[in-house]
From TrEMBL:
One of its GO terms (molecular function) is acyltransferase activity, transferring groups other than amino-acyl groups. It holds the Pfam family Acyl_transf_3. Residues 9-356 form the Acyltransferase domain. The chain crosses the membrane at residues 12-31, 51-76, 96-118, 143-162, 182-203, 209-230, 242-261, 273-298, 318-339, 345-364. InterPro entries: Acyl_transf_3_dom (IPR002656), Glucan_succinyl_AcylTrfase (IPR050623). Keywords: Acyltransferase, Membrane, Transferase, Transmembrane, Transmembrane helix. This is Acyltransferase family protein.
Length: 397
């Protein structure tokens, strides 16, 4: 029983860390040279932030989907497929729907205002004119919540296949690969083939609500690996020892990937196949080395129950769901300031996180919103969080 609580606690913390890393990622996107990656584009940009975005994008959601697969297998083993689907509708579908209804209008209006702000002294009047034309609803998109749609598709597919998935992934071959030093290479091969369908050899982001099966297939590999980890949860100590070496390898592969992407952009008129294939390989190896490295580090350093750590884990879902309007509100006033892009990104992040944590503490944790996101209401006071609560595995996302 001790091992279970440690494993689940570490994985809960890792999943939350990937959510919180998304806030840091989006605090930088306004200052990237990449087009159409955020709601507004600051005139001051940074190639260093481009590299940061590509690096984090390459492993953050893959690691998150590994954790989602792990907790999906846990949840379906405890509640059956009907209880599993009911939980997924409540924890994924409802936040997705509410987020679209509440957040999209604000973010779209802010994006239009930001566009006019650096081009027209009458930015607000131009924005009102845009609204008067009825253009708000014409280009609705899943925003930063697109990953919830992907996860819902995977859960819908996994529910009826759960017994077969558990039998197949629970076989000895999975543990044999898990115990091998070449485990990241094996899983990278699977991811490599899914990346061949992407535009630049990195994980694409959907911009509409249609089911993009090539993207779903790419994340299904990570989800299935997480499911297999739950089937072989007794073997997780095998992953504790190689955290740092895997992270170092991931950094090396990141440099290869960045160089290959630069070459693709320089030769964009035609497909540069060597650069494209190098990008696919580098992206896959970076993702899986980071996944194995992060799992090892979190099992080693975050496997002990901690009320404060659990509090951050509980709050991470809310922080990610509502962070875009807070970041945009902080980024807008800085658009006309000639500060370095890196400084603006750090300022936005440092100001946004306390605001987001305060909103969770006072408006979510002990309210009906907390029931939706965390499955229950918690006492607002941090010191009253019982240590037994820290041992309960979360399956919120």
């Amino acid at each position: 029983m001790k091992h279970d609580s440690e494993r689940f606690h570490a994985f809960d913390a890792l999943r939350a860390a990937m959510m919180l890393l998304g806030v840091a990622l989006h605090s930088s996107t306004a200052y990237s040279t990449f087009p159409d990656v955020w709601w507004l584009k600051d005139p001051v940009t940074s190639r260093w932030l481009d590299a940061f975005l590509l690096f984090v994008h390459g492993f953050r959601l893959p690691a998150f989907f590994v954790m989602s697969g792990f907790f999906a297998a846990l949840l379906i083993s405890r509640r059956g497929w009907q209880g599993f689907l009911e939980n997924r509708v409540a924890r994924l579908g409802l936040p997705f729907l509410l987020g679209m209804l509440v957040l999209y209008p604000f973010l779209k209006i802010a994006a239009v205002f930001a566009y006019f702000l650096v081009r027209d002294p009458n930015a607000w009047n131009r924005t009102l004119g845009w609204l008067a034309e009825g253009r708000l609803e014409r280009a609705i998109e899943p925003m930063h919540l697109w990953f919830l749609e992907i996860l819902m598709w995977l859960c819908l597919a996994a529910a009826p296949l759960a017994p077969r998935l558990t039998r197949w992934l629970g076989r000895p071959w999975f543990r044999s690969i898990l115990a091998s030093r070449l485990a990241p290479v094996f899983w990278s091969l699977l991811t490599f083939f899914t990346l061949l369908s992407m535009e630049f050899g990195i994980l694409d982001t959907p911009h509409n609500f249609a089911p993009h099966f090539r993207i779903i297939a790419a994340y299904a590999v990570f989800f299935a690996f997480g499911w297999g980890l739950y089937c072989h949860r007794a073997s997780l100590p095998l992953l504790r020892g190689a955290g740092w070496p895997h992270l170092c390898l991931a950094v090396l592969f990141t440099f290869i990937t960045l160089g290959a992407i630069d070459r693709q952009v320089a030769n964009r008129a035609v497909r540069d196949w060597p650069a494209f294939l190098a990008t696919c390989a580098g992206t896959a190896l970076t993702a899986w080395c980071m996944i194995f490295g992060l799992i090892g580090l979190f099992l080693r350093y975050f496997s002990q129950p901690s009320p404060r750590q659990r509090y951050l884990s509980d709050s991470a879902y809310w922080l990610y769901l509502v962070h875009p309007p807070v970041l945009v509100a902080l980024q807008l006033p800085m658009m006309l300031l000639p500060w370095p892009a890196e400084l603006k990104a750090v300022i936005g992040l440092l100001l946004a996180v306390p605001i987001l944590l305060a909103s969770y503490h006072y408006f979510v944790r002990s309210t009906w919103l907390g029931v939706i996101l965390n499955g229950r209401k918690y006492p607002a006071q941090l010191q009253t969080v019982a240590i037994e609560t820290c041992l309960e595995p979360q399956a919120s996302v």
